[in-house]
Amino acid sequence: MARVMIIDDERDLTEICTLVLEAAGHEVECWHPGEPVVASLMAFRPDVVLLDWILGPVRGAHVLGMIGHDLRVVVMSALHGVEAMARSLGAVGFLPKPFVPEELIAAVESALYAEPDARNA
Amino acid sequence: MDWRREDHPFADLLARRKSEIEARWRDRVRTEGADGTAVLEGALSDYLDGLARTLSHPHAIEEEAQVWIESAHEHAVTCGESFDVHAVIHQLELLRQVILELAIEEGELAQDEIVRAFDVPIEATVADYVRARDREARLSEAEHICFLTHELRNPLAVATLAAAQLRRMGLPSPAQARAAELIERSLSRLRTLIESAAPVEPWRA
Questions:
Q1: Which residue in B158, B169, B191 is closest to A13 by CB distance?
Q2: Which of A106, B126, B148, B183 is paired with B134 by a 20 to 30 Å CA distance?
Q3: Which chain A residues are within 8 Å of B156, Cβ to Cβ?
Q4: Which residue among B151, B165, B201 places its CB closest to the CB of A101?
Q5: Residues B89, B125: contact at Cβ < 8 Å?
Q6: Longest dimension (CA), chain A
Q7: Which pLDDT band, with edges at 50, 70 and 90, does B79 fall under?
Q8: Of residues B102 and B83, which shows the higher confidence score?
Q9: How confident is the model at residue B7 (pLDDT cuts 50, 70, 90)?
Q10: Contact criterion met (CB below 8 Å) for A50 and A4
Q11: Do residues A20 and A100 touch, judged by C-beta distance below 8 A?
Q12: Helix (H) or strand (E) holding A77
């Protein structure tokens, strides 16, 4: 079981991802738009972070830059061409939208067991 | 180099009466132009010199046409406006009229060279305008499709996950399970359609 924090401003998506991951046995917390992202992460201390790339005015890339080398982050995005950039900022996984439950669960579990030397510098 | 040559009377006319041509053209643009703006003002002097060279050396006529196009582009960038092909062509026509009037005043009857010398830049201007508009339309279409595919992927992700989760949770009746299966299949088709229509994102390395 993993502690997963979902950082995405699409409420419907965070809700359905929560349902899927909780059904798979994980503990899930969702970031709420307007709250400081880093403070939310520090309060929950997740094993894996699912981070939206766009994320409205906050910018997922900016958040990833701050946390990418300290936390296991899987970037989710409807922009399929940003994977290389996300990995260069420290993401250990990339989940292109749309995805099915099996892909979501596999991405979280793959990130959970990512070897430290497999994380991109 | 002195472009005044006896066997090219128009080249000589352009050199001798260049200031007058420029003044008459500006006046004509002010009174007959769509908004009085001399789109080609910045390139006029260079163009008249180039036109004189063209009349002296006819093989150089297509090279000189580029001066007008570059001037129109530069003007459009400075003003933040689109390349106005109608203004460019109209002002080229006004210049042709001014030069022909001066030629008639001097008793020159062979006006074919002047007429032909303006046909080339006008044709080149129109061709360049069409190419520029076509490029803009293609870029706009690609950007629109890119935006659309991005916006469709988020709700599609929600629907895909929700339909699959319903199936995983087990629906009580075969009819409900079948309905969920149909939803998943349709969503899968939508996903395939969107991915096949998605253009390469401009930021993709």
A1: B158
A2: B148
A3: 97-98
A4: B165
A5: yes
A6: 35
A7: very low
A8: B102
A9: low
A10: yes
A11: no
A12: strand A72-77
Q: What is the pLDDT, as a whole number, of residue A7? A: 94
Token pair for residue B125?
Answer: 């201007």
**What pTM, to 2 d.p., does this model score?**
0.58
Instruction: Identify the residue whose tokens are 């250990």.
Output: A92
**C-alpha to C-alpha distance for B107 and B120, rounded to whole angstroms:** 25
Q: Which DSSP symbol is given to A12? A: H
Residues 131-170 of B with CB under 8 A from A: 149-151, 153-162, 164-165, 168-169
CB A63 within 8 A of CB A51: yes
Chain A residue with minimal CA distance to B167?
A: A101
Q: Can you give the pLDDT at residue B51? A: 72
pLDDT at B47 over 90: no
User: How far does the CA of residue A11 sit from the closest CA of chain B (Å)?
Assistant: 10
- Please state the ipTM of this predicted complex: 0.80
The pLDDT assigned to B56 comes to: 64
Sheet (strand A27-30) strand order: A27-30, A3-7, A48-52, A72-77, A93-96
* A81:B155 CB<8 A: no
Q: How far apart (Å, rounded) are the C-alpha atoms in residues B177 and B175?
A: 5
**Token pair 């994980």 is at which residue?**
A26
Query: Which H or E element spans position B34?
Result: none
Taking CA–CA distances from B190, the nearest residue in chain A reads A98
Residue whose token pair is 């009746």 = B173
Contact B161 A99 (CB under 8 A): yes
Between the alpha carbon of residue B160 and those of residues A95, A110, A118, the distances in Å are 14, 21, 30
Hey, what amino acid is at B143? E
Rg value, chain A, Cα: 13
pLDDT band for position B112 (50/70/90)?
A: confident
Q: Is B161's CB within 8 Å of A104's CB?
A: yes
